[in-house]
Amino acid sequence: DITISQFQWAMEDTENNNAEEVSSSLVTVPGQPEHSYQLQSVVSHHGAGAASGHYVADVYRFDCGGWCRYDDTRVTKTDSLSVRTGTNTANGYIFTYIYQPLWEECQRQFGEGQC
Fold this sequence. Notes:
This protein is α+β, with helices and mostly antiparallel strands. The chain contains four helices and six strands, in the order H-E-E-E-E-E-H-H-E-H. It has helices at about 5-10, 80-85, 90, 100-110, and strands at about 25-30, 35-45, 55-60, 65-70, 75-80, 90-100. Strands 1, 2, 3, 4, 5 and 6 form a six-stranded antiparallel β-sheet that branches. Strand 4 and strand 5 (about 75-80) form a beta hairpin. The longest helix is centred in the last third of the chain and has 11 residues, at about 100-110. The radius of gyration is 14 Å and the shape is globular. The protein starts with a helix and ends in a 5-residue tail after the last helix.
């Protein structure tokens, strides 16, 4: 299991988390070195409380070869640095990870796609 503190460590580690510039970087789960995962998406809540605000999703898309932000009806390109250091680090609600061998297979299948 991945804890929030492990995610925060991964988000703060600008050298090792889905950096497009360093595609071979890994996020490993402490205590289980045989299992490595890549951050694939972050859903964040923006607002004063649970009764107000809205959700934004940052998703790594293999078909685009990078990160996209889904904010209501707007979809924009973003980058790994913004995902790791933006408001997600304080407002992150749901985090999804992909097992490293599966990540690599998806990278091979989609190559360097562009949206």
